[in-house]
Write a structure and sequence with these properties.
InterPro entries: His_Pase_superF_clade-1 (IPR013078), His_PPase_superfam (IPR029033). By secondary structure, this protein is an alpha/beta fold. Helix content is 30%, strand content 21%. Strands 3-2-4-1-5-6 form a 6-stranded mixed β-sheet.
Length: 168
């Protein structure tokens, strides 16, 4: 069994006029990333490998998750605004049992939809807002055996739910 935690970066700050790749998180994004980290820990979702875009906002999201223990992490240029095919190739080469992939829309929403056998029953799944996180499991022994529409969704959350519920 393999598990993917597919996370879109938290809310970034457009007000500073930074180039897209260098945009940092805004205040809400920083709070959201911390809330997502606490949610992952509470759910027992500890990745042993991370595949993360090289963009500043994805790296900052990952850092603020405060994962413990710290997993093996690969910062990958090819995940910066990657489409579903590129994300599939990156995941197919993964070595971890539970892999966290941190990326960007619109590719991450399309990838989530195409990798899952069914959509989770959540009204925000298809637009995959900032910080959206899907947990999906695959009945495979190695990631090289990954197939489209083979994942079974086990959870989906958006930061607003965590912040509004007081779980953050």
């Amino acid at each position: 069994m393999k598990r993917l935690i597919l996370m879109r970066h938290a809310k970034s700050d457009w007000s500073l006029g930074q180039p897209d790749h260098e945009r940092t998180l805004n205040k809400r994004g920083r709070q959201s990333a911390k809330a997502l980290g606490r949610w992952l820990a509470a759910e027992g979702l500890t990745p042993d490998q991370v595949l993360c875009s090289t963009a500043t906002r994805t790296r900052e999201t990952l850092k603020r998750l405060a994962l413990d223990p710290e997993p093996q992490t690969v910062f990958e240029d090819r995940l910066y605004h990657a489409g579903p095919e590129s994300m599939f190739r990156q995941l197919s080469a993964a070595t971890g049992t539970t892999v966290l992939m941190v990326g960007h829309n619109p590719g991450i929403a399309a990838f989530a939809d195409e990798i899952s056998a069914t959509a989770p029953p959540h009204p925000r799944f298809h637009d995959y807002p900032t910080g959206a996180t899907l947990v999906v499991e695959f009945d495979i022994d190695v990631w090289a055996d990954l197939a489209w529409q083979s994942g079974v969704p086990r959870g989906f959350v958006i930061p607003r739910e965590l912040l509004d519920s007081g779980e953050a």
